[in-house]
Amino acid sequence: MKKISAIAILALLAFTACKNGEKSSDDQMATDSTDIEQVTTDTPIGDTSRNALDWPGVYSDTLPCGDCPGLLFDIQLNDNNTYALSLKYLEKQETANKYTGTFTWDDSGNVITLDANGDHKKLKVQEQSLKMLDKFGNPEQGDQSDYIIKKID
């Protein structure tokens, strides 16, 4: 009887010693869930202008101007987050002012902000167009269709 008890205890110890190095399926699932949760929090959820639209290209239109017939606004956005901007006040300038620089995306992935060379202008990236925003990222005052800059290339 003592031999059977001793063998049973040794077998139990051997079984639990081997099992200590392994994770139960519940433990493994909890670890996998944590890994998945960590990955998904780093990845934006849903489509944004940045990841779903064909935004690189040339945009051009005439925007409202307080003391002239309009502001000719031309901008080329490049996929490396650089831009080339041309601004010409109609009937006030012979040649356009030209600026180059970089832009950044906001957290939503829908609005870009030009660097200091571009006077920190904010533009909402839309399907085949940009929408001029004020310096706080809000729509400009007035008829919103006047602030749409169409993609031409």
Walk me through the structure.
This protein is α+β, with helices and mostly antiparallel strands. It contains three helices and eight strands, in the order αααββββββββ. The chain has helices at residues 2-20, 25-42, 49-52, and strands at residues 57-63, 71-77, 82-89, 97-105, 111-114, 122-126, 129-133, 148-151. Strands 1-2-3-4-5-6-7-8 form an eight-stranded antiparallel beta barrel. A hairpin with a 7-residue loop joins β5 and β6. The chain starts with a helix and ends with a strand. Residues 33-43 have low confidence and may be disordered.
Beta-strand segment tally: 8
Series of secondary-structure elements, N-terminal to C-terminal? HHHEEEEEEEE
Strand content: 25-35%
Tell me the major beta sheet. Answer: 8 strands, antiparallel, barrel
Average of the residue pLDDT scores: 82
Strand order of the largest sheet: 1-2-3-4-5-6-7-8
Radius of gyration: 30 Å
**Through-space gap between termini:** 90 Å
- Overall geometry comes to globular
Low-confidence stretches: 33-43
Number of helices: 3
Quaternary organization: single chain
Furnish the topology, listing elements before pairings.
Blueprint: H1 2-20, H2 25-42, H3 49-52, E1 57-63, E2 71-77, E3 82-89, E4 97-105, E5 111-114, E6 122-126, E7 129-133, E8 148-151
Antiparallel strand pairs: 1-2, 1-8, 2-3, 3-4, 4-5, 5-6, 6-7, 7-8
Features:
single chain, 153 residues, 8-stranded antiparallel β-barrel, globular
Briefly say what this structure is:
By secondary structure, the protein is of the alpha+beta class.
